[in-house]
Design goal:
The chain is α/β, with parallel strands linked by helices. 51% of the residues lie in helices and 18% in strands. The longest helix is centred in the last third of the chain and has 35 residues.
């Protein structure tokens, strides 16, 4: 009887230790995003989080704060630094301090179509992710926001002189975009994403650059009357976790997180490609006028764009070897059957 009691006590102790250990190892990853609840992004991320919770037996959970309730991307990054949040689904441009080479995706007027950027991404996405990790962030998902277009509420814009006359918005912490506009002689007005719609409504700003799906999702299109029919630059949305927080998760669970969320973001990426194309049609159907620059105006845009891109290399903010690699990839693509 005594022996049976000892066995029972040992089993109970083992169960307690096991439960305590698993509870101590459990991680809740608090993630903030501007994406509205119910959007494709949120649906796919929530589905991924559910799968991760199941596959890790509850050791890893996600808690999402959608719709900008934690503030703009600057606020989110600040809360990640102090440990209030573990990560965010953010515009890639907001993470430039962690990895300036991300700017390779947003080289102005460098990618002419979807095929070109897809080909480049196939070869350098992994390199960009490694760069972010060195800067303190683990990237667990990347999906395109798409090509950004200049959109105006007040005036049809086709040339740079007209652009300089507008009240142009810039994200509060997008260093890259700020440099680009400065090189075009444009003085921009910085605002958080959450204040842009009100800025358009009040006239504080009248010109923005955004992807078609972004303009619709954020309701900016309701204030837009003109779009320059020329993709300016490419942008990505990134789901990232603070590297220190990620390192505290068991390696086997890290792999589950990466596998599940990468799969989810491939679906988001494919959806966004489709939706961006459809969104351009929706914008046109809503009476927004697409303005096509003349050949002379296009040449002027390209000259300024090339100077802005080269300046990033000359000032050391973008690795020249990476730029040459991308140029080579684009040359390969354009001279191949993919042309």
């Amino acid at each position: 009887m005594k022996k049976l009691l000892l066995l029972f006590q040992a089993a109970a102790l083992l169960l307690f230790v096991t439960i305590f250990f698993n509870t101590a190892q459990a991680k809740t990853l608090k993630i903030a995003t501007l994406s509205p609840e119910g959007s494709d992004w949120m649906q796919k991320m929530r589905a991924g989080a559910k799968e991760i919770k199941q596959k890790t037996s509850g050791r890893v959970k996600f808690k999402f704060y959608p719709g900008g309730v934690m503030g703009d991307d600057s606020a989110v990054l600040r809360k990640i630094r102090i440990g209030q949040l573990k990560g965010g689904a953010l515009p890639g441009g907001s993470l430039l301090k962690a990895n300036p080479n991300y700017q390779i995706y947003s080289l102005l007027l460098s990618y002419k179509n979807q095929g070109e950027i897809d080909y480049v991404r196939q070869h350098i996405d992994s390199e960009i992710k490694k760069g972010f990790e060195k800067g303190g962030f683990v990237i667990i998902g990347m999906a395109e926001s798409g090509f950004a277009y200049a959109m105006s509420s007040k005036q049809a814009i086709s040339n740079i002189t007209q652009l300089r006359q507008q009240k142009v918005w810039i994200p509060t912490n997008d260093i890259n975009f700020q440099k680009i506009l400065k090189s075009f002689g444009v003085t921009a007005i910085p605002l958080p994403y959450g204040d842009v719609l009100a800025g358009l409504q009040t006239g504080l700003i009248n010109t923005v650059a955004m992807s078609p799906i972004g303009a619709i999702a954020l309701q900016w299109y309701t204030q837009i009357n003109y779009i320059i029919d020329m993709p300016l630059l490419y942008s990505l949305g990134i789901l990232t976790i603070d590297k220190k927080s990620f390192s505290k998760i068991k390696p086997a669970d890290q792999k589950i997180i990466m596998d599940v969320m990468n799969k989810a973001f491939k679906k988001i990426n494919a959806q966004n490609k489709k939706h961006n194309k459809e969104s351009l049609e929706v914008l046109a159907a809503n009476g927004i006028e697409f303005i096509k620059p003349s050949e002379t105006e296009l040449k002027e845009w390209q000259e300024y764009a090339d100077k802005a891109n080269q300046k990033m290399v000359d000032t050391g903010t973008l690795d020249p070897k990476l730029v040459e690699k991308v140029k080579k990839l684009l040359s390969e693509y354009r001279s191949s059957k993919h042309k």
